[in-house]
Amino acid sequence: MRNLILVIILTVLSAAGCTMIISEQSRKLVDTEDSFKVIKSSPDVYIGKHVMLGGRIANVINSAEGARLEIVQFNLTSLGYPEDTFLSYGRFLATNSSYMDPMVYRRGMLITLVGEIKGKKTMRLEDIDYTYPVVTIREWYVWRDSELDRNCNYPITRPVYDPYSYGFGVDPFLQRSYNPAYIPR
Asked: One digit per residue, pLDDT tens: the chain, 185 residues?
């Protein structure tokens, strides 16, 4: 009996960890399965349709009309997580009628959103005129793992067993972390 209860608890916890972060109501509104590449090529065809997109925040601008996020698009996994790869089909603008604090929605954070395509907007991006698809945000989720305040375990504070040291001691400079060097503010 005790094992059965343990199995049920573990099943419930593992199922809860694999749930979609965007609500079912918003996901039901998504009425196009076309890729971002197709949508970006002709956003006027998709005006009024809802899409689920994700990527990395490149810029946040607030004005009297509300907030505008510039997002570098990445493909989404089956759970809605943006695959942070070197493959992107461009950028899009996500607008919201309320203020979005740039200290909360920082540059570099990963975001997933559901929104309605409103058209396109041409703006300067560095030295070129760039045409962005514009999406009005209905629901969004900022991924905690994308925050830059992850703990960096370099330099090493305690000796770590290294099977390749052959008894010559531990050299902390040979055991660099895979995380970027980051100093908390």
From this structure: 666 666 566 555 555 455 678 888 888 888 877 888 899 998 999 999 999 999 999 999 999 999 999 999 999 888 888 987 788 899 999 999 999 999 888 999 999 999 999 999 999 998 999 999 999 999 999 987 644 434 444 444 445 555 555 555 555 545 444 455 545 55
In the chain, where the domains are located: 22-145, 149-185
CA distances from 159 to 127, 162, 176, 180, 183 (A): 50, 9, 13, 20, 22
Residue 154 three-state SS: coil
**Based on the number of CB atoms within 10 Å of its own CB, is 52 exposed (0-12), middle (13-18) or buried (19 or more)?**
buried
- For 104, what's the count of Cα atoms within 13 Å in the CB-facing half-sphere? 7
Helices marked H in 34-163 — which ranges? 36-41
DSSP characters over 16-60: HHT--SS-HHHHHHB-----HHHHHH-GGGGTT-EEEEEEEEEEE
What is the pTM (predicted TM-score) of this model?
0.68
Overall fold of domain 22-145: OB fold (Dihydrolipoamide Acetyltransferase, E2P) (2.40.50)
